[in-house]
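Lecture 7, part 2: worked example. A protein chain together with zinc ion.
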Amino acid sequence: MRQITVSNIEIDVEKKAIKNLHLGVYPPNGRVRIAAPLRVNDESIRLFAISKLSWIKKQQRSFAAQERETEREFISGESHYFNGRRYLMNIIPTTGKATVVLRYKYIDLYVKPGSSRKHKASVVAKFYRNYLNEQIPPLLAKWEKKMKVKVNEYWIKQMKTKWGTCNIEVKRIWVNLELAKKPLPCLEYIVVHEMVHLLERHHNDTFVAYIDKFLPRWKTLKSELNKSPVSHVDWEY
Ligand SMILES: [Zn+2]
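Predicted complex, written out as structure tokens:
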């Protein structure tokens, strides 16, 4: 399978003995695929993709919204995300302590038989929170040194619309619990973004100049995060 990139969207291209170009956008993560006749060259495929860009984006947005609305049930076989990877949940009954164990592509959730959805969700949330509490302090230390700023405290909470926020007056950063699902560089991008607010309150040219300087690849990380706002997304390396 070959790939082309059009306007930051990766498109799988498959050449086949067919008559017409065919475009599809597929759930759950809005993968884009074009099937093209053997005689059609790459440039024509690219132009075709460009002409369909707004439709592609619309489809992707609607899949992202659907995924966002899909409440996890915390049952075996369900997809859960951690650190940018997808894991399949296994519910394992135990009389011991409730816990989460990652094993290859599985996320094993040990809970008492008959545990409620709410309880299972809270065990997974605690696992995410512990992970973020391991990752965030070293990131703060690293960037405080580089940026010559001081963060007084950070808090983690579940947020619906924002990846992070910064209270400049008290130098406090809030980080969305959902970031535990994303690859570590995305978490770092949010931490750096919020810390830049300690140098510049607004998203103006000065702000952009700082973030360009500290994290030159921030745009890539931002677009990865925004492919689907605060939701479950497949991330393939
Ligand atoms: Zn900001």
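The CA atoms of residues 155 and 170 lie 13 Å apart. Residues 229-237 have pLDDT under 50 and may be disordered. Keep this in mind for problem set question 3.
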